[in-house]
Amino acid sequence: MAYNTQPTASHFVNGTYLEDTDGELIEVVYPATGAVIARVHAATPAVVAAAISSAKAAQKEWATKSGTERGRVLRRAADIMRERNHALSQLETYDTGKPMSETLYVDATSGADALEYFGGLAGALTGEHVNLGGDWGYTVREALGVCVGIGAWNYPTQIACWKGAPALACGNAMIFKPSETTPLCALKVAEILVEAGLPAGLYNVIQGAGAVGAALVTDPDVDKVSLTGSVPTGRKVYAAAADSMKHVTMELGGKSPLIIFDDADLENAVGGAILANFYSSGQVCSNGTRVFVQKGIKEAFLKRLAERLATAKIGDPMDETVNFGPMTSQHQREIVMSYIAKGKEEGARLVFGGAKIEGDGFFIQPTVFADVKDDMVIAREEIFGPVMAVLDFEDEEDVIARANDTEFGLSAGVFTSDLTRGHRVIGLMEAGSCFLNSYNDAPVEMPFGGSKMSGVGRENAKVAIEHYSQVKSVYVRMGDVESPF
Ligand code: NDP
Questions:
Q1: What per-residue string of b and e applies to 446-481 under the rule 16 or more CB within 10 Å gives b?
Q2: Are 101 and 321 in contact (CB under 8 A)?
Q3: What positions does UniProt annotate as the active site of this protein (predicted)?
Q4: Each residue of 61-110: pLDDT tens digit?
Q5: pLDDT, tens digit, for every residue of 12-32?
Q6: pLDDT-derived band of residue 401, with 50, 70 and 90 as boundaries?
Q7: In ligand 1, which atom is closest to the CA atom of 236?
Q8: Which of 28, 108, 417, 430 could form a disulfide with 88 if both were Cys (CB 3.0 to 4.6 A apart)?
Q9: pLDDT tens-digit profile of 286-317?
């Protein structure tokens, strides 16, 4: 089975596909060839209103169902996603350009993991009994209402599920707006949820750019906004949501440190640095793009890194032996190329790659700069592409201070064979999602998210329940009421 890249219609609202050609045309481009593979329309105000009213109408009844019943739907959806993994992975590859060697293993599969995990948790959501010495109280975990999810373009299936699964498990409805660059995959998530038995209106997908996102964020009928995107967008969305006191989750960008001590296993450290910089052609928010390498291991590290990067297979992402694809858009490629130019201009030493790969697709070579200094632009700003900055360090205290000297706080990694030191250093990292002798693992069982400017709230794991529900407390008096008058 393979999906048509042209969807049945642009939006999925109230349990079915919906079209409104009055909305601005969005051409969907396959990043590996530059070919237009689908055309969709941005949501008009009428589509936005239809999505919100259908979500509002469906949510109340959904919240009255038992958690087990809600969870069953999510778990069925997880099974369907796994059965269709190949077709969904192909669509993800068309949407993003990421190679099939990645999408087959991390996109629909991690989406299915989220549906399965939160489907399993749904029946276990309870309040508490509180003994008040005669009187007593209890708490009830309630849904928030209508939740909005706004996604970035790097993981369109995963983001649609990471937001949708906990929202639905807690009894909410969701309206998801994918990035306009990658509008295709979330529609399939919506289709599959309905096939699994989700009542109409509970998971809607509408297309559009920032203006559609902004219309959702400011709507008084929306109770929560979960954004995956950049810090500048996060600032705007958080401020807009604050106006009507909406709950928020912000999964934003980063410039995360990866610290490699000279006692680290060299092959593992190089492998970790590759995963931290070149997976998904570097378009991963948690990437460890500031690689601090202790002086004793530096030359060996750079040599092995170059040898291993030379074996990357770059090319047609549909070829399952290819492991490095294009940037997701022409625009993003230009941004990344401008950072590469900046790195050269600032005097960083280019030790690998650095050029576009000619052709119709948006390919860039995996790129490594060495001798990078802390104040260089390539060491301070999120590039969101395959550009690694290698910085030298000598002692632990110094590297901790430098690693934390950033407004971001999404991730951090440490490679060392001294586990006491490993835990000590990780403990001092100002970051939400950390890795010890590993990098970029994101199992659904672990919380994911950032501190400082990288975000608010967490996705995944049990903690996500806190961000998609609220607690009502009820005081129960067992005797008479004593009042002063
Ligand atoms: P953007 O911040 O540009 O966009 C994110 C989403 O927000 C898009 O759907 C965008 O629409 C929408 N949007 C833009 N402006 C507004 C607005 N004013 N109101 C509401 N919605 C708006 O991010 P990118 O799509 O470029 O993704 C890359 C960024 O995402 C990087 O910074 C990366 O680090 C971060 N990211 C964070 C992750 C995390 O979990 N922490 C994971 C993945 C990525 P459109 O683009 O269609 O205009």
A1: ebbbbebbbbbbbbbbeebbebbbbeeeeeeeeeee
A2: yes
A3: 251
A4: 999 999 999 999 999 999 999 999 999 999 999 999 999 999 999 999 99
A5: 999 999 999 999 999 999 999
A6: very high
A7: 18
A8: 108
A9: 999 999 999 999 999 999 999 999 999 999 99
For ligand 1, atom 41, name the residue with the nearest CA.
251
- Tell how far CA 232 is from the center of its chain: 16
Burial group, residue 210, by CB count within 10 angstroms (0-12, 13-18, 19+): middle
State how far the Cα of 469 lies from the Cα of 287, in Å rounded to an integer.
30
What contacts 247, CB < 8 A, 6 or more positions away?
144, 223, 224, 225, 241, 467, 470
Query: Is the separation of the CB atoms in 437 and 414 below 8 Å?
Result: yes
Q: What are phi and psi of 55, to 5 degrees?
A: -65, -45
Of 98, 100, 22, 13, residue with least CA distance to 48 = 13
> Considering only the top CATH level, what class is 11-253+454-472?
alpha beta
- Ligand 1 contacts CB of residue 170 (under 6 A): no
- Which residue(s) pair with 395 in the sheet? none
Q: Which stretch of DSSP H or E encloses residue 400?
A: helix 396-404
Give the nearest ligand 1 atom to 180 CA: 47
CA-based nearest residue to 11, from 179, 202, 208: 208
CA 176 – ligand 1 centroid, Å: 13
Residue 24 makes CB contacts below 8 A (sequence gap 6+) with 41, 42, 208, 209
Q: What are phi and psi of 274, to 5 degrees?
A: -65, -50
Does the pLDDT of residue 356 top 90, yes or no? yes
Q: Does 154 sit in the ligand 1 pocket, CB within 6 Å?
A: yes
Alpha carbons 267 and 246: distance in angstroms, whole number: 47
**pLDDT for the residue numbered 1:** 85
Find out whether the beta carbon of 252 lies less than 6 Å from any atom of ligand 1. yes
Whether 251 sits among the annotated catalytic residues: the reply is yes
Handedness of CA 385, 205, 250, 464 (dihedral sign): negative
Is-above-0.90 flag for pTM? yes
Q: What is the sign, positive or negative, of the torsion defined by CA atoms of 270, 271, 276, 281? A: positive
DSSP 3-state assignment of 320?
Answer: coil
Domain assignments of the chain as residue spans, ordered by start: 11-253+454-472, 257-436
| Candidates 3.40.50.261, 3.60.15.10, 3.40.309.10, 3.30.830.10; CATH matching 257-436 | 3.40.309.10
Which pLDDT band, with edges at 50, 70 and 90, does 413 fall under?
Answer: very high
